[in-house]
Design a protein that fits this description.
The chain has 22 helices and 15 strands. The termini are far apart.
Length: about 550
């Protein structure tokens, strides 16, 4: 049994890391709904459990795909990078950086207690405005408890892990009396609860590999195949909700908030990955996160930027995952476009924070920034391409399979290529045999041809209207909307003529997507033309410079 001052790679063997990745992903997947139910900070969007689960799942997939002879440090790096590239939401991004800090410490040969401290510090430094009482506090308290235990004579690595779990659990318990939004709702911090599960999964993984499972502990894992068959329920040892609060305590907490609490119900969550090849000179790898964090803080809140340089000698690009909540999507896109000149920016993932949960996720490709914001507000998860990378069929397929909902409806060009990528990803062996970890059990992905922004906008509007009908089949509604749609793209000078041609075959609703340089005189003429034909006209600005008009006629 390694002593408390043993290196991470001595305390956590390759087998332990492999089992841990699966256990953590499984625990978060199983308990995602319970964690979602207590998600009220920084935004009460009810998805912390889902986001942490999806993030851990991508990390587990990366570990499962590693070569059999990979060592513990290499596996921890794969776990962190997989989580980084697959991170979702504020909590998922923070979790990925915590894992990255752990991997960095392991690569340096640090002790387990020191590695937990590095992980906590790395996660905290990634957040522009860290708050006390969150997942960051749980990480700090876990690291402090581990450090204190490691300093005790005769302490073992197992003692250090037990102390870390205990510290994180105590921090989660105290979170309800630390943050006013939690006190008002009488719940614990969702992210802190998720980290307790991750740390407890690490403790359990080590016990399983060493065949030291205590009575009543986690059981049902075959270490030989690293297949998780069953794991006990939430290991917090406490209820997540139902904690009594005192009005004076709530008032006191609110008085001490530092102004960074996010409460704007009309905000969008924007995430993107930045990649840079070795040798980029404008910023050193260690400076990128800080500079990008500063840029995003100018356009929104809940800013988190994680990631960094690839392992020395690796052929992989350096990568960063950026996250911001903002009411101003064009401003966030402008930040991404500036950074695209310094690297490669993958498509932005945009969603509205107040969209309720449901069985269907709409994945929409969109080039127009103002329209992307409107689609997100209508309930779609929107991908916005940043030149020169744009949006690929793989991007759309990956987004569809990363959702936790039962059905994903993909709207974009080249549907055959998207379907092929979906089939390839679903069939690709990744070592995650359990349905909850694969994420595609019973999951249906429907791909429809939406080659232009007008197609996408009309379908999302039709879906929003159909959601008011409890008997409506949303996939049928989308298919019908596309079947009844005729479209044209025209320069401003020819827009009226193009609309007249489309209306020659009749029509009830006209959607005109006008670039920002198209004059009001043109849009007013389109409105008159539609009215003369007995059709309603909806004019939307694209939010981009140009003189083009996209036209869609329904009916």
């Amino acid at each position: 049994m390694p002593a408390a001052d043993a290196r991470v790679t001595d305390a956590l063997s390759a087998a332990v890391v492999r089992v841990w990745a699966r256990l953590a992903a499984g625990a978060l997947s199983r308990e995602s709904r319970a964690i979602n139910d207590v998600n009220v900070f920084p935004v009460a969007d009810g998805d912390t459990g889902t986001n942490m689960s999806l993030t851990a799942r991508e990390g587990a997939r990366a570990v499962a795909a590693a070569q059999d002879d990979a060592g513990p440090a290499a596996l921890l790096r794969r776990l962190a990078r997989g989580a980084l590239l697959g991170a979702r939401g504020n909590s998922g991004v923070i979790l990925s950086e915590w894992l990255r800090g752990l991997a960095i410490a392991a690569t340096r040969g640090e002790t387990l207690a020191r590695a937990l401290d590095v992980a906590a510090g790395s996660a905290r430094s990634a957040v522009a405005h860290p708050q006390h009482g969150t997942i960051l506090t749980a990480a700090d308290v876990a690291a402090a408890a581990a450090h204190d235990t490691a300093a005790s004579p005769g302490a073992s690595a197992d003692d250090v892990l037990e102390a870390a779990v205990r510290g994180a659990r105590e921090a989660a318990l105290s979170s309800v009396a630390t943050l006013a939004p939690l006190a008002r709702a009488g719940v614990l911090d969702a992210g802190a609860c998720g980290l307790v599960l991750v740390l407890d999964a690490l403790r359990a993984a080590r016990a399983l590999v060493l065949d030291q499972v205590p009575h009543g502990g986690v059981v049902g894992v075959s270490v030989a195949t690293t297949t998780m068959l069953a794991v006990t329920p939430v290991t917090l040892g406490l209820d997540l909700t139902g904690h009594p609060t005192d009005a004076d305590v709530v008032d006191d907490l609110e008085a001490h908030l530092d102004g960074h609490e996010q409460s704007d119900a009309d905000e969008l969550e924007v995430m993107f990955v930045l990649r840079r090849r070795a040798g980029a000179t404008e910023y050193a790898p260690g400076e990128v996160a800080g500079a990008l964090r500063t840029d995003l803080a100018a356009v929104g809140g809940s800013v988190v930027v994680v990631g960094g340089a690839a392992e020395p000698g690796s052929a992989e690009d350096s990568a960063w995952q950026a996250h911001v909540h903002t009411p101003d999507l064009p401003a966030a896109i402008a930040v991404a476009e500036r950074w695209a000149a310094r690297g490669v920016v993958e498509p932005l993932h945009v969603r509205h924070l107040a969209v309720p949960d449901g069985d269907l996720t709409v994945i929409a490709a969109m080039a127009a920034p103002a329209l992307a914001a409107e689609l997100a507000r209508a309930g779609a998860a929107v991908l916005v391409g940043v030149p020169p990378a744009g949006i690929t069929p793989l991007d759309l397929a990956s987004a569809a399979l990363e959702t936790a909902r039962r059905t994903s409806l993909v709207l974009g060009p080249d549907p055959a290529a998207v379907r092929a990528e979906v089939a390839r990803l679903q069939a690709e062996p990744d070592g995650l045999q359990e349905d909850a970890l694969r994420g595609d059990s019973g999951q249906e992905v429907v791909v429809l041809d939406a080659p232009t922004d007008a197609h996408t906008a009309v379908v999302v509007a039709a879906l929003a209207a159909a959601e008011d009908d409890p008997h409506a089949d949303l996939v049928d509604a989308a298919t019908s909307a596309l079947a009844a749609l005729r479209t044209a793209e025209a320069p401003a000078a020819g827009a009226v003529a193009a609309l007249e041609t489309l209306l020659a075959d009749g029509g009830e609703v006209v959607t005109a997507l006008a670039d920002d340089d198209v004059s009001d005189a043109v849009t007013e003429a389109l409105d008159r033309t539609a009215a003369e034909a007995g059709a309603e006209c909806v004019v939307l600005r694209t939010g981009r410079q140009g003189m083009s008009v996209g036209i869609g006629v329904e009916g």
